[in-house]
Design a protein that fits this description.
This protein has about 375 residues and is an alpha/beta fold. It folds into two domains: about 190 residues, Rossmann fold, CATH 3.40.50.2000; about 170 residues, Rossmann fold, CATH 3.40.50.2000. It has a seven-stranded parallel β-sheet with strand order 3-2-1-4-5-6-7, with helices on both faces. A six-stranded parallel β-sheet has the order 10-9-8-11-12-13, sandwiched between helices. β1, α1 and β2 form a beta-alpha-beta unit. The radius of gyration is 21 Å and the shape is elongated. The N and C termini lie close together (about 10 Å). The model has no long low-confidence stretch (mean pLDDT about 95). Bound molecules: ligand GMT. Ligand GMT binds next to α1.
Length: about 375
């Protein structure tokens, strides 16, 4: 198949899923064309049947807002016509599903019918998508897609509860590539970060409000009073500055390291004992899955689709959003009990196996065939 993939090229989960999916499809012999404004962060090396088409949005003094959507639609028309794509798969509804609809209509005037699959990732439905400034367009473009997938059952339900949806929504879970995410021996890193045998807790996110990063710091504050430990804060975003200030106020600067955006997160997960994800909302929680694949149990909130990934009392613990005391207590229990920690580590790995890319990729291929009517 010749497949076009539209996504955000940044560190966000939807861009990561889209890129890994595209690369996996290419490995299976499909031709994959990424169409976006920058080379996706996980598209780092040359692959024989992977193509990248950069969208350049034209600026002009008249435009207060650069019309990226128009440039993307024009690029889609061009790539689909000349590369003769079979199917277009857009990740994150805003604005990609609406732009795909526009491109589809334009292509009809050339006698081309391009099936569009839209994958919903989370905030395109919850935090952002249901805002009245986007909602009618999101609802319309989901209903006009030829196929719609959601990354968790909870997100599917939330979409049906939020919008008037006339299309079936197929749940295809996010996935993990074990050739990259697995526990490896990085003892030299561990020694550098925790020279006195401290436990290592880790958080990875885009540091937006929805991640409740301040809860991570408050949980760690309580844990570090009972267990000698260090906290790694990986990623960057609007809340980082406030979090650094909070660490200074709590006098935790020697125990917490802000590492910024990191490419090889698996190397840091390999030396971690617990992963913290206290999000306000999380349609799936891809980073939690990445941690689990590296045998790191997860202490998370029970928001959104997290209970479909992190199993309470098995692969980690789920607490109510904002329950800092509960999360800290669970961390302390696990960190003080090596035997339980080892069991949770193995359970986390086994649960991650359910989301192996080798199981999930064929579900997308089968879904594409269904949408194409083959
Ligand atoms: O808004 C975000 O947090 C980023 C967003 C994205 O599109 O990158 O993340 C969402 O998609 C990920 C991949 O499917 C999911 O693992 C995340 O749970 C989801 N984030 C939220 O629902 C907040």
């Amino acid at each position: 198949m010749k497949i076009g993939i539209v996504c955000y090229p940044t560190f966000g989960g939807s861009g990561v899923v889209a890129t890994e999916l595209g690369l996996g499809l290419a490995d299976k012999g499909h031709d994959v064309h990424f169409i976006t404004y920058k080379r996706p962060v996980r598209l780092t090396s040359f692959h024989a049947n992977v193509y990248f088409h950069e969208v350049t949005a034209m600026d002009y003094p008249l435009f207060e807002y650069t019309p990226y959507e128009t440039s993307l639609a024009s690029k889609l028309v061009d790539v689909i016509r000349y590369e003769k794509l079979d199917l277009l798969h857009v990740h994150y509804a805003i604005p990609h599903a609406a732009v795909a609809y526009m491109a589809k209509q334009i292509l009809k005037s050339y006698g081309i019918n391009i099936p569009v699959v839209t994958t919903l990732h989370g905030t395109d439905i919850t935090l952002v998508g249901n805002d009245h400034s986007f909602a009618p367009v999101v609802e319309f473009s989901i209903n006009e897609s030829d196929g719609v997938t959601a990354v968790s059952e909870q997100l599917r339900q939330e979409t049906l509860n939020t919008f008037k949806i006339t299309k079936d929504i197929r749940v295809i879970y996010n996935f993990i590539d074990f050739s990259r995410f697995r526990k490896t021996n990085k003892d030299h890193f561990r020694k550098a970060i925790a020279p006195d045998g401290e436990k290592i807790l880790v958080h990875i996110s885009n540091f937006r409000k929805v991640k409740r990063v301040e809860d991570v710091i408050h949980v760690f504050d309580k844990v570090s009073k009972k267990v000698k430990s260090k906290l790694l804060m990986i990623g960057d975003g609007p809340e980082r500055k406030h979090m650094e200030e909070l660490c200074r106020t709590l006098n935790l600067c020697d125990e917490i390291r802000f590492l910024g955006k990191q490419e090889a997160v698996e190397e840091l997960l390999a030396i971690s004992d617990l992963f913290l994800l206290p999000s306000e909302n999380e349609s799936f929680g891809l980073v939690a899955l990445e941690a689990m694949a590296c045998e790191v149990p997860v202490i998370s909130s029970n928001a959104g689709g997290l209970p479909e990934v992190n199993i309470d009392g098995v692969t980690g613990y789920l607490c109510d959003v904002g329950d800092v005391n509960g999360m800290a207590q669970r961390c302390i229990e696990l960190l003080q009990d090596e035997e339980s920690l080892a069991i949770f580590r193995k359970n986390a790995y086994n649960q991650a196996k359910m989301f192996d890319i080798k199981q999930v990729l064929p579900q997308y291929e089968e879904y594409y065939m269904q949408v194409l009517g083959r």
